[in-house]
Design brief:
The chain is an all-beta fold. Helices cover 0% and strands 62% of the residues.
Length: 191
């Protein structure tokens, strides 16, 4: 298990230059926009505008903080996301325009290269302890707020807000999450 502390996350400009993203984890390590297999990041969205276009990429978006975001897709469909909404998955190579509801938001963005890697993002509230089987290779646990302990096998880490644990699970090894926290579990699957 690797501990990815919030203060060590890498900051960089958006692909379209419209803002800044905070990269939590990427594979392969050090990969850029053109050659990542998977990527987990956060971004502050302070104004309305188009999403960056990523050919051959699938994306899941969740709101961490703020009053919400309305997405309008190229086919005319719309979706509204706020901090209580389930994470929303969609292709990152379609036209998407974003409109803020009431002030800036911070989002969680998970992207995987279509045909090679897929992913699943779950929003979980912890007040006590839960155990879940880790299916992803890897599985990441991101503490959004509060304090979260992550255990698997003999490994254990304690997370504060925006810290992340990256787990390379052994088959049949459960992950135990404990504490009082809002968190996201991100599972990466290779096709």
């Amino acid at each position: 298990m690797s501990l990815l502390r919030a203060e060590d996350h890498r900051r960089m400009p958006w692909k379209n230059g419209g803002g800044e993203t905070t990269e939590i984890a990427v594979f392969p390590q050090g990969a850029g926009f053109a050659d990542f297999g998977w990527r987990v990041s956060m971004a502050k969205v302070a104004g309305d505008g188009p999403f960056s276009h990523f050919p051959g990429i699938d994306r899941t978006l969740a709101i961490l903080d703020g009053n919400g975001l309305e997405l309008t897709f190229g086919d005319g469909n719309r979706a509204f996301l706020d901090a209580d909404a389930d994470p929303l998955s969609f292709p990152a190579d379609i036209t998407v325009d974003a409109r803020l509801s009431d002030g800036p938001i911070t989002d969680l963005n998970v992207m995987t290269r279509r045909g090679t890697v897929t992913h699943k993002v779950s929003r979980i509230e912890i007040d006590g302890a839960i155990e879940r089987q880790t299916a992803g290779m890897p599985t990441l646990a991101l503490c959004h707020s509060g304090k979260l302990d992550v255990e698997t096998g003999d490994a254990r880490v304690s997370l504060s807000a925006l810290d992340c644990a990256q787990i390379e699970p052994l088959p049949e090894t459960p992950m135990r999450l404990s504490g009082k926290a809002h968190c996201f579990v991100i599972e990466i699957f290779y096709d």
